[in-house]
Amino acid sequence: MRSLPAAYIYAFLKYDPLHCAAIKKTAPMVLECHKMTLTMFETVFIILEKRDRAIPVVMEGKNVIAMARTGSGKTAAFLIPMLERLKGRIAKSGARALIFSPTRELAMQTLKFTRELAINTDLKATLVLGGEKIEDQFAAIHESPDIIIATPGRFLHLVLEMDLKLTSMEYVVFDEADRLFEMGFQEQLQEVLNRLPSERQTVLFSATLPKILVNFVKLGVEDPVLIRLDVDLQISDKLKSSYLLCRSDDKTAVLLYLLKNVIDVEKELTVVFLATKHHVEYMKDVLETASIPCTYIYSSLDQMARNINIAKFRAKKVGIMLVTDIAARGIDIPLLDNVINYNFPAKPKLFVHRVGRVARAGRSGRAFSLIAPDEAPYLLDLHLFLGKSIKFATSGMKDEDGVCGSVPQTIIDDEADALHNWHERCIDLKNMLRVSRNAYQQYFRSRPVASSESIRRMKKLDLSSVENHPIFKDDAAAEKNKMLADIKSYRPNTTIFELGPLAKTKSNAVMREIRKVHSKIINQKIKPDQPKSESTEETSNTLLPADENDLKCFSHEVVKNNQPWYLKNSNFRDTEHYVSYVSTEHYKEKGLGLESTFERQAADAVLDFTGDDDNNMKKMKNVKQWDRKKKKFVQNNDNEKSKKMKTESGVWIPKTYKSEAYKKWQEKNKTRYQQNDDDDEEESRFKKRAHKGPVEKSHRPPRRELKNKEEILKARNVKEKQMGRQKKKNQLKANRGKITKDVNVYICVYL
Asked: Where is the composition biased (Basic residues) (predicted)?
């Protein structure tokens, strides 16, 4: 790291101030470049010193598998060592570095960052993406770039079309490795890795990388070094999460209140995650009616419209972006301030990916989650995954991280009245509401089910009695809600046998005695079911009572409370020697999806996301289609092998990867791609000079009629030379005829 040029350090600290603790000795130069104070510089490096494990190992040339939280500087962690290793262009044909990205947006961001870091070098980087013109990518490969940033499908297409030799590759990166495998790129990655040289360096970076390396050893990673950054901290400590309990129909009203009163939409950037594209379109119309500017993206949106909307959001022309999970994958907003989960994610891993977009690079951020009653079990799954307890709001609690509270009904009523008036005046808004509700029914059926234990535990909790969240702090409203809660939870102290003329009978006395016996059991049963904060502590002037362990030191015999058998702890587990049948990190591994193998993940496709439109929701594996030849319904994958071809390494890939597009492009442009391969040079050195056998007739391409400037000048010069030669020949012929005529005249006169 010490040998890095100043431009690397400048761009590194400017765009991703993580993983670079080794440049601490260059503090005066960095301070001068960035015009920052020494206090700010030291604050930055307090963060850097926690994150300096990745780059030194990669710089040593080892194969690295790194797990790091989203926003911790993974991109710079593999780009800086790559640029240090390549240094500059060399007189050799072929790329030397290859970076795989799961999505187009992430690949374009990586290219932008690469060019910023390599601004003072002569290294050339190119982009190979699906959906672009393949002819332009043929031309880009012909320019022999040093770095190729690609998506796996299109890159393999180019390799097979052009018959590329990848023997010059020195450095291979898998960015967002878990997403590459979950999105079904196993065949493409396996085929590309089989073509790469064995002496390459492989680096895998991901936000949720499994502990077991079997899946990656299959892909050819030898002797990897595992680096786990932020294993215990899935979410940034700078992030403040708020969980708001409300009904499903009230979520729109709560969202409007947050955008109007809690979040400063003019200065802060906010991303709102919704379930389907129909919710995105409906919410866009609602916010526009409320005079709140916003932009939106979803998976089926046109690519040009996506780019325009993302550019408007990045330029802060609008402060709110409505997205779905599928569309938001790969979009990087470095200065994001807030995230709102309109629909709570069904997987803890998905929640980590959502909120990981804020509180990055040492900045603070907030995450608001609107939780309906049917989404409460997912909240418990999330806290089990994070290893935290749910903190329910209480009276007097401050606005802190992880508080779960309700929304005052007065706030909901005010916004709901405005929404009702808008829907009455606008028929389009009413139709969009109906469509979004129908879409939610499909989303509800396709959403993964929460764990049965979380569902059982949440059913026991009375969420309606939870206090208002501290962000809605209002003393008058708090007293009103408390009174309503007391009325709702009122339990009479008398029974029907103790009222009226029966009050003085013998049955009344019997009921009193029965109530005395049963009241303790009833209270003991009711107490655990009441939600209360586990993080708050009751303060009092009394001394803390001694526990049982403290009392044991006074006597060998401890007199315990004489409790009934049904109130005693009947736990059979020995506190010292009991071994649980599940690991201590069971819920964390389950949330990350680490208990399943890759084959199961590939079979289930993407478990984290549900489709945001009808077509994606209906793509199920049991869907059959009519076969006209067999005259019956068959599975879609019955003829899977017939649509694929087997490569030299034994991997089955789609037949569409091998077409004649490259040959047609070569014939059209009359160009050739010369690959510098050692094996080809050895073969050409010992090739026989003479060719035996019949010579095949060459089929030349049609003559190209269009000419450039140089070709026109060359043709003119050739024509002028030809005309000059012809003129000389004609002059010689004329002179020769004249001489012959003069000689004949002289002979006649002489005779």
From this structure: 623-633, 724-735
pLDDT one-digit tens code per residue, 351-363: 887 887 787 766 7
Whether residue 238 contacts residue 72, with contact meaning beta carbons closer than 8 Å, is answered with no
How crowded is residue 603: how many other Cβ atoms within 10 Å of its Cβ?
A: 11
Q: What pLDDT is recorded for position 301?
A: 83
Q: What is the 3-state secondary structure (H, E, C) of 352-398?
A: HHHHCCCCCCCCCEEEEEEECHHHHHHHHHHHHHHCCCCEECCCCCC
Global pTM exceeds 0.85: no
Q: Which residues contact 131 (CB under 8 A, 6 or more apart)?
A: 104, 303
Angle between helices 74-86 and 104-117 (to 10 degrees): 50
Cβ burial, residue 443 (10 Å; 0-12/13-18/19+): buried
- Local structure of 329: helix, strand or coil: coil
Residues contacting residue 249 through CB under 8 Å, at least 6 positions apart:
none
Q: Name residue 712's amino acid.
A: I
In this model, does residue 373 exceed pLDDT 80? yes
Three-state secondary structure string covering 186-246? HHHHHHHHHHCCCCCEEEEEECCCCCCCHHHHCCCCCCCEEEECCCCCCCCCCEEEEEEEC
- Which stretches of 580-676 are assigned E, i.e. beta strand? 624-627, 632-635, 644-646, 652-654
Our measurement of the distance from residue 627's CA atom to the centroid of its chain's CA atoms, rounded to an integer in Å, reads: 38
Residue 280 pLDDT exceeds 90? yes
pLDDT band at 26 (very low <50, low <70, confident <90, very high): very low
Burial class (CB in 10 A: 0-12, 13-18, 19+), 667: middle
Q: How many CB atoms lie within 10 A of CB 628?
A: 6
Helix axes 6-15, 27-34, angle to 10 degrees: 60
Q: What is the structure's pLDDT at 294?
A: 93
| Rounded Cα gap, residues 356 and 379, in angstroms | 17
Number of residues in the chain: 751
Two tokens, residue 306: 């996506």
Per the structure block, which two tokens stand in for 552?
């044991």
